[in-house]
Amino acid sequence: MHSDIGQFTVLRELRPTIEENLARHRAESVQWEPADFVRAEMYWGSRPSTLTETAKAALVTNLLVEQNIPLYRRDAVATEIGAWPSWLTDWSNERRRHAAAVTDYLVATRSVDPVALGRARAQCMTVGFDSPMNGAHLLRSLVQVALDESVSSISHRNTADQCHDPVADRLLGRIIEDQELHVRFFADLVSAALAVAPGLTVTAITEVVMNFQLPGTNLPGFARSAMLIARDGIYDLGRHLDEVLRPMLAQWRIFERTDLGAGARSRDQLADYLDHLDAQAATTERSAMRTQEYANALRAS
């Protein structure tokens, strides 16, 4: 199919993939509730939270991202793509479950002020995110969410390592398994879109990668949280390159394709941009090492 076809045509072509992926997701997903992992009595009488400030920042940021599900359009776009509304319902419910479970954990462990967290959640819903999954931008949105879910999964995995709590380890492990299924769903849709309209889809991928912002960038207190998360290695530019972008682009065979037509120009832009990020990540890593060496010297003096 020619690469300059309209996105609505692409979406209609994706109907079988959406239906197959939804059936697979429902067969492989596990039904669970926050109370299966977190109960307040686990922590009654315990000392105050031992979570680091970085672990707290990462958990709060991730739960705000998880709970902020936009109101997706269920109009003519959705009716053209069959099982899409059913998938959005399942996916949204699972993300809300993640947010509720992390909230319960933070409150039970006395890691946050529950009133302040409630205010942050309300403010988050007021600020909102740019709503994806609608109209002519849906292809870009599929790419965006595939990357966002991968970022969240990696962030949760590295946060669990910093919590030093078996309850957090089990809970975040469960959330990660859900998120990996989400990544697979959206990444498979992008793969299918590349087969239908390779030029159009690789252009969408390039636009998303070159304009990527971490999930939750517009959330309250995000700048400080992002600094802590990067400083302590939960998520930084190096991880973004090595653990999200490169594996995803390899899965989509972006740099192996010979069917891109005019989209080859976008692919070339993407390759140049990755080289730029690679140099930037190396510079950032060297700077961090120098800062750490200086701090170690001060402590030893």
TrEMBL record:
Its cofactor is Fe(2+). Transmembrane segments: none annotated. InterPro entries: Fatty_acid_desaturase-2, Ferritin-like_SF, RNR-like. One of its GO terms (molecular function) is stearoyl-[ACP] desaturase activity. The keyword DNA damage does not apply. Gene3D superfamilies: Ribonucleotide Reductase, subunit A. Its EC number is 1.14.19.2. The keyword Membrane does not apply. Keywords: Fatty acid biosynthesis, Fatty acid metabolism, Iron, Lipid biosynthesis, Lipid metabolism, Metal-binding, Oxidoreductase. It comes from the Bacteria. Homodimer. Belongs to the fatty acid desaturase type 2 family. This is Acyl-ACP desaturase.
